[in-house]
């Protein structure tokens, strides 16, 4: 029996690879007994719910050592590791392209491309996201930001201050060789976003509907509803409603006019921010007054058929800086 074991061991050691493995094991065991490592520390698996995104390994230390030496946990060490400042700075602006496919809109594009809606809208100079067409080729930048058209009195510092960014970021992104900028050019402002009003305008979410109802006559040219032959330009939307239905302010603002007109009947005009003004006509009752401040959705009157009207409805007009605009393109 003993002779058999000796023969098998001799055969095993005849293989050079086996000898090397035994040698490595012997070295490890020698080091273990020489240095006698302390295994009082232990590793505990931490569930994802306790550790944020994903699970993790939590290293806990025995602080009852005789020398009372405090050893930092792994989490503490990680907090001392600072990312290089260069990683937070903007890089040179680069563009790729994307072909709009069926089912895509600005919201889904932003998610799929990892960019803000503001960025895609601005760099492609989109004025109405609802009119985004299939097959349109979009420019896709390698970082978030918007375009700024340089005005006559603009300086690099004033632009940077407006968007709360470092002038160096603008210089780097646009590959400027100095702080000199030219009037009329477009500068990419890294990290900047569109102001709230501009974004609401472009997305068509600026105004709420003053009443719920069907549009019986849209904005634009139409046949005269009274003689049926002459074409005339309709300055707003006619929205059908029952007499007495509450009419609500489409956006907060100040009432500048409230009264009666032979054509518009009982009407109200409200001035809003950013140069917008709305008109509400043919109401049966006015429930506000000149100079009053009204909030979005506040009742300002009731649907009626006063003035030049063929039946109960609300006439709704929108002006931007004194110019007529299509209300439907700005309504949620």
Give the arrangement of secondary structure elements:
Blueprint: H1 2-13, H2 16-35, E1 42-46, H3 48-51, E2 56-60, H4 74-80, E3 95-99, H5 106-113, H6 117-123, E4 137-141, E5 145-149, H7 156-162, H8 167-174, E6 186-190, H9 196-203, E7 215-217, E8 220-223, E9 231-234, E10 237-240, E11 246-248, E12 253-261, E13 265-271, E14 276-283, E15 285-286, E16 293-294, E17 299-302, E18 313-320, E19 323-325
Antiparallel strand pairs: 1-2, 3-4, 5-6, 7-10, 8-9, 10-18, 11-17, 12-13, 12-16, 13-14, 14-18, 15-17, 18-19
| CATH architect. name of the domain at 215-330 | Distorted Sandwich
End-to-end separation: 93 Å
**What is the count of DSSP helices, taking H or I runs of 4+ residues?**
9
Helix share, percent: 10-25%
Pairing-aware structural class of the strands and helices?
alpha+beta
Low-confidence stretches: 42-46, 48-63, 66-80
Rounded to an integer in angstroms, the radius of gyration calculated over CA atoms is 36 Å
Look at the structure and give the CATH class of the domain at 215-330.
Mainly Beta
Quick check: average pLDDT?
83
Can you write the helix and strand succession as a string?
Answer: HHEHEHEHHEEHHEHEEEEEEEEEEEEE
CATH-wise, what's the superfamily of the domain at 215-330? Glucose Permease (Domain IIA)
Q: How is the main sheet built?
A: 8 strands, antiparallel
Shape: elongated
In percent terms, what proportion of residues is strand? 25-35%
Q: Tell me the number of strands.
A: 19
Question: Which fold name fills CATH's third level, the topology of the domain at 215-330?
Answer: Glucose Permease (Domain IIA)
């Amino acid at each position: 029996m003993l002779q058999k074991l000796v023969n098998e061991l001799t055969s095993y050691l005849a293989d050079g690879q086996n000898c090397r493995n035994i040698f490595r094991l012997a070295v490890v065991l020698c080091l273990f007994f020489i240095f006698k490592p302390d295994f009082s520390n232990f590793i505990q698996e931490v569930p994802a719910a306790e550790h944020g995104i994903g699970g993790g390994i939590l290293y806990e230390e025995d602080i009852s050592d005789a020398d009372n030496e405090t050893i930092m946990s792994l989490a503490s060490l990680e907090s001392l590791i600072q990312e290089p400042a260069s990683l937070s700075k903007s890089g040179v602006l680069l563009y790729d392209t994307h072909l709009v496919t069926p089912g895509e809109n600005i919201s889904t594009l932003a998610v799929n491309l990892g960019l803000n809606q503001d960025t895609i809208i601005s760099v492609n100079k989109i004025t109405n996201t609802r009119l985004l067409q299939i097959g349109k080729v979009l420019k896709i930048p390698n970082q978030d930001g918007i375009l700024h058209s340089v005005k006559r009195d603009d300086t690099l510092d004033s632009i940077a201050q407006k968007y709360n960014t470092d002038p160096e970021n603008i210089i780097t992104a646009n590959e400027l060789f100095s702080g000199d900028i030219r009037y009329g050019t477009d500068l990419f402002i890294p990290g900047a976003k569109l102001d709230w009003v501009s974004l609401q305008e472009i997305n068509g979410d600026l105004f709420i509907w003053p009443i719920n109802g069907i549009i019986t006559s849209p904005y634009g040219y139409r046949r005269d509803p009274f003689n049926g032959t002459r074409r005339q330009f309709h300055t707003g939307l006619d929205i059908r409603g029952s007499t007495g239905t509450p009419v609500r302010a489409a956006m907060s603002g100040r009432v500048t006019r409230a009264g009666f007109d032979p054509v518009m009947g009982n009407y109200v005009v409200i001035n809003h921010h950013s140069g917008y003004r709305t008109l509400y006509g043919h109401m049966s009752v006015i429930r506000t007054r000149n100079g009053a401040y009204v909030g979005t959705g506040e009742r300002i009157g009731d649907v009626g058929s006063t003035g030049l009207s063929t039946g109960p409805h609300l006439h709704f007009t929108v002006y931007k800086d004194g110019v007529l605009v299509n209300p439907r393109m700005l309504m949620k």
